[in-house]
Amino acid sequence: MIIIKLGGGLVAPKEWEAEKADLTVIRRLSDELVQGVDPGKKMVVVSGSGNYGHKAVERYGISEARGIARVRESARKIGEIVRDELEKAGRDAELIIPREIFPGGRLSIAEDKTPVLYGDVIEVEKGKWKVWSGEKIIRKLTERLRDVEMIVQVSREEGVWDRQGLIIPEINKSNWEVIKQDVGGAEGSDVTGGMLHKVEESLEIERDCGVKTWIISGAVPGRLKDLLQGKRVPGTRVG
């Protein structure tokens, strides 16, 4: 199984107005996913929230029921868009609502469908809610499924940059503490931490589950397809 995360800043740029998806990019990436992944291989797609969930959290918060409902509604919309575009590209897809299966619910994946998930507001304990990023969702999926062979984080960035403006080809537990000071958090409207968060979650996934993550650009046409077909592409491998 392959897990692919479509970055929120890529599919719904945070500098855009609220709840506006980049349909051109989503359609192209959906085509690349369908062309790049063999129909017989299982795939899970996780969408970032971009100007959907992130802006909704800023506007409504998650301290009371009304705000939580608004954020959940907004976050779900981008998941529905990604699911619909995958289906138009030729892959049967099914939207899975994260709060219905996390933290302790049952996860059931239909053999003939590609699950699509998204960042959501999860009740982690009675009366206590947290925003679970796409990265957090990926981590929980990897822990549960146990047959994940690779994770791909598709971003607006070419990978993880160092201080000299060069792409770091590999980040692992041995070099992370040195590299960490060069890696930024989130820019703009982001409540989940940006690239720093991506790398740290990916390192934890590799430590706990033995699965590596590739961070590549989805802004460059064909790059996602090339990686999925086993070609070498620019980017950062984490783990």
- Write the CATH homologous superfamily: Acetylglutamate kinase-like
What top-tier CATH class fits best? Alpha Beta
Major beta sheet summary: 8 strands, mixed
What proportion strand? 15-25%
Report the count of strand segments. Answer: 10
The ordered H/E elements are: EHHEHHEEEEHEEHHEHE
**C-alpha end-to-end distance:** 18 Å
Helix/strand structural class: alpha/beta
Low-pLDDT windows of residues: 186-190
What is the count of DSSP helices, taking H or I runs of 4+ residues? 8
> What is the overall pLDDT average?
92
Write down the domain tally. 1
Helix content: 25-40%
* CATH architectural name: 3-Layer(aba) Sandwich
What CATH calls the topology is Carbamate kinase
Alpha-carbon Rg, integer: 17 Å
Judging from the principal axes of the Cα atoms, what is the shape? globular
Give the strand order of the largest sheet, numbering strands 1, 2, ... along the chain: 3-4-2-1-7-9-10-8
Description of the molecule:
The chain is of the alpha/beta class. It has a single domain (2-238), classed as Acetylglutamate kinase-like (Carbamate kinase, 3-Layer(aba) Sandwich). Helix content is 37%, strand content 19%. The chain has helices at residues 8-11, 23-36, 53-60, 65-89, 134-145, 176-179, 194-209, 223-228; strands at 2-6, 43-47, 93-95, 114-118, 120-125, 128-132, 150-155, 170-171, 213-217, 236-238. The strands form two sheets. Strands 3-4-2-1-7-9-10-8 form an eight-stranded mixed β-sheet, sandwiched between helices. Strands 5-6 form a two-stranded antiparallel sheet. Helix 2 (23-36) crosses helix 4, helix 3 (53-60) packs antiparallel against helix 4 (65-89) and helix 5 packs parallel to helix 7. The longest helix is centred in the N-terminal third of the chain and has 25 residues, at 65-89. The protein is globular.
